[in-house]
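Q:
My hope is that you can spare some time for a protein that puzzles me. I hope you can help me see how the letters and the tokens relate. Thank you; the sequence and its tokens follow:
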Amino acid sequence: MELRHLRYFIAVAEELHFGNAAQRLNISQPPLSAQIKELEQNLNVQLLKRTNRSVALTEAGEYLYELSVQMLARLEKETAILQEIDRGERGKIAIGFGGSVVFQILPRVLTLIKKQYPKLEIHVSQLTTKQQIQALLTGDIDLALLVPPVGDEELNTHPFYEEKFIVCLPKSHPLASSTGPIAMEDVSNEPLIISPREAGEGYFEAVRSLYIKSNTVMNIAQYSTEQQTMVSLVAAEFGISFVPESTSHIQHHNVVYKEIDVTHYKETVLTWHKHTQTPLVHGVVELLKTFKV
């Protein structure tokens, strides 16, 4: 049984007249009659009661008519979905991101994607830079917003945005109530809370650059991969932490955020596997290249 058999049968069932059905299908009547006869033989079922003057559906014919209409409607719907997938308008996409993009960037990115691709199913995962790179290479995620360097020739990157570092201090700190930028030399000996190098070299080196520019040395006291945890450790007076400006959205009654007199930026890049060929991922990459902070 082929789809044309069902289409021909629907026309006959609705017209209950072979001549009218043939005209509707833009074919001659003999081939139509032959196709309906072939359908009955394939199914081993009588679908029509024929007389010289009339055509009527048998009970089996009525059932097949309803089933055929449903099947063709479903096929038409699924075909439209397949075409949307092929055009990159529908499907699933997995996006990895680091903790520092949560507050300002991620909501705007997801809103932009959903507006352009309303039929897209988006899955997001908060991961360290190292975890994002690994997930891109294994295909567990399609795109990543991470801190460079990436260090793998299989991955493509595109500059996404950058933001200045500020310092997070306990509210009890002597400089917490000061006005103006904090001098690096005034806090360089403080116990430092920082993301470990193995979680992401780019973030670690960006903080280290603050010390290099001020000719000072890091005094690392605690490691944490999560911005929220860093702020909590500062609140508990375990030390200070240099964080991207967006981290100041994490409000805690026992911390303050201050600008510093050394300017250095945390860079974030859009990253994807260079062998990704799906129209959907390609379309989202091109969309995000237009993103403006």
Notes: Residues 18 and 33 are 7 Å apart (CA to CA). The mean pLDDT is 93. The longest strand covers residues 155-170.
